[in-house]
Amino acid sequence: MKNLALFDLDHTLLPIDSDHEWGEFLVRTGAVEPLEFKRRNDEFFEQYKAGTIDPVEYLEFALGTLARFPRKELDAMHARFMAEVIEPAILPSARALLRRHQDAGDLVAIITATNRFVTAPIARALGVEHLIAAIPEEDEHGNLTGKLLGVPTQGAGKVTHTHAWLAQIGTPLDAFGRSHFYSDSHNDLPLLSVVTHPVATNPNAVLATHATRLGWPLLHLFND
Q: Do you know which Gene3D superfamilies this protein is assigned to (predicted)?
C-alpha cells in the first residue's frame, strides 16, 4: 500500500517562519508603513506561537496587505524574498527528509497555515508538488482581492483540508498503509492525532511534552 507523508512548513521544513519573515521583508524593503505594520505582524506571530491567534483575523490582515500591490509587482517582490530569505534557509537536512519519502514512493505534501501566495514558490523550491495552504481570492487579472477562499488551513482546518484534498485525488486517509505528519507546533495536534505516524519535528515545548507522553518520535531536524 502507498504511504502518505505530510509536512508542516514553518519551523518544520524551514528553520524560520515564512509568513512572519515575509512581513519583515515588506518592512525592510519599505513596501509598507514600518511601525504599525511591524507591531501588528509581531503581535500576530506571538499569538500564533501561544496558540491564541484568530486565523481569519490574521489572514485578513496578511491578504489585505497583499491586495495593495499589482500582481506583477508582488511576484517581483516575492522573487527577491526567495533569493534573500528563503533559499538560504532551505537546509540539506530538510531536503534529505523529503527525498527519503519521495524515493520510497510516498505521496508527499506540504500543509501550512501560511497563504498560498507566500508558500507556493517555497514548495516548488523544496521539490514538493502538492501544497495545501490558505487560498487567497484573485480577480480576473490575477490580482489578490484581500479575501480568503474557504476556511483557514490551521488547527482543525488542516484536518478538513487534508480530507478534502485526498477526496479530490480519490484516496481517503485510511487507504494509506502509513500516514506521516511532521510538525513543530501544538497548533497542529488535530492533524497529528489522526495520522498513523505523527512526528514532533523541532517541537515547541507544548508539543514536545505531549509527544513524549504519547510516545511519539521527536525529530530535531536542524540539530542532528
A: HAD superfamily/HAD-like (3.40.50.1000), SG protein - dephosphorylation function (1.20.1440.100)
